Amino acid sequence: MKFGVSTLALYPSPIEKILDFVENLGMDYCEIINEYPFDDLNYEIFESYSLDVVIHAPISDINIASHNHAMRRASIEEIKSSITLASKINSEKIVIHPGIVPVLGKKFINKIEKYNIDALREIRDHAENLGVKICLENMPNLEECLCKDLNEVYKIVNDLGIYTTLDVGHANTMGLDVEKLKIDDSVIHIHISDNDGSYDTHDALGEGNINFTKLFKKKLKNYSDTITIEIKTKEELLKSIEYLKAKKIL
């Protein structure tokens, strides 16, 4: 397994300070959320570090399933721009969120779902041309979210020939049962954070009710790809790393 840290916990420090910090932690890579203040990155910066990089496409104000054509088009182009960045810095994969159901879109759910699939197909084609792997993330249990059910995500990614980001914290808000958790062959990236199942709080590992020991020992024992610690503060990030070391996972 390769462990990395999301910029979520270290935002909004300058990217150089974040990379220094993550490298000093001994992590394998840094996952960068590619929006302000990390929306206009000089890709030559990364040549000074031994860290690998995973790009997370922007999420604020982005909706690839919007039924406003201009907003949907702009969202798709923003994600395609992140894919181009990923290719320039040799990030082999990029994390993307599915679209969301607009306030006035609930009565047109079939149309919204089609917008989502059509957008993912266009994004996939752009990524394939640049040699980048699209990793679609399962969403938390919020009314407006598409792709909350992990099995739905697996169906979409297998139909489109893309990949999955398994977000364990998101899955927990959907009633995660580690014993029954299915890790599809499409899963090549994982996010870990903790919560009590009621909301996606990105708490430190060990502060919620997710059984990470069982998850790693039973479900991830043969997994060898990337795992991002996606925690909301620096203090909780450090606590999470100590937790993983104490459990002999890291």
Automatic annotation (TrEMBL):
Coiled coil: none annotated. Keywords: Isomerase. GO terms for molecular function: DNA binding; isomerase activity; zinc ion binding. GO terms for biological process: DNA repair. Residues 20-246 form the Xylose isomerase-like TIM barrel domain. It comes from the Archaea. This is Xylose isomerase domain protein TIM barrel.
